[in-house]
Amino acid sequence: MSEIVVSAFYKFTPLPDFETHQAGLLACAEENGVKGTILLAPEGVNGTISGPREGVDAALRALKALPGCEGLDWKESYTDENPFLRMKVRLKKEIVTLGVGDVAAHESHERYVEPHDWNKVIADPDTIVIDTRNDYEVSIGTFDRAINPETASFRDFPAWFRKFREENPFKKVAMFCTGGIRCEKSVAFLRSEGVEDVVHLKGGILKYLETVPEEESLWRGECFVFDQRVSVGHDLAPGSYDQCYACRRPITDADKASPYYVKGVSCPHCHDEYSEERRRAFAERQKQIELARARGEQHIGVKQKADG
What we know:
Layout: E1 4-12, H1 22-31, E2 35-41, E3 44-51, H2 53-64, E4 74-79, E5 87-91, E6 112-113, H3 115-123, E7 127-131, H4 135-138, E8 141-143, E9 146-147, H5 157-167, E10 172-176, H6 181-192, E11 198-201, H7 204-211, E12 219-221, E13 223-224, E14 231-232, E15 242-243, E16 250-251, H8 253-256, H9 276-294
Helix pairs in contact: 1-2
């Protein structure tokens, strides 16, 4: 088994004094050789961390000691190389940004569907199935019958849903996302909009791919993840995608063969999205990354993102 443990977690729970936990969590992680990102907000905690088994266990104990986090769940994977370069504990308004004010996301646990029941739910013709992820994530894989809202960010979801609801009658809603956090917030939002017959996939796509046999699966394609693996398939096996480190979108070998692809600077999806000044900055960053690698070091400018 690989030596580095990668743990992704979130918990919606009221944390009115969330700021007071920042220093203690950071100190615990750094003392135990743990790297990654933890987000704290009035609505709870979210993050992905990595490190040695004992260190990750210590950090998880500290997280479970937060008010309301005793039942914190997390997903684990293993890698030979730490996917994160440093440890950050950030204070935020929301642990996943929807931007519509207070919604009771901590009450959404009652609307879970277990992975082994998901196929039956989404096969129901009276149920609309909504993929709550962003368009670049949906583009490499999704479930049968799923609606793609074609959003660029999670903040776009409320406006999309309100418009969709005006134009499309429906009876029941089933939603899903990568690890569960966005659809848990989405369920709370729909309920605040008066939609009561709504459920979501417990543990998200990752739990489904981990537990449902491939021969029974209704998943098509790969699942984008927010670390250096870029994408995973069934049994969470590493996928076939790379990533453009300018725009963060997943890219294929064909994309990398395009004249618009310059490593670390642009790809066919973003070649016309940035100014020449930004391109020069990307090129300089890539140069420093290559120089650091030649010295056997890691360049701190490489960004990693917590799972959404």
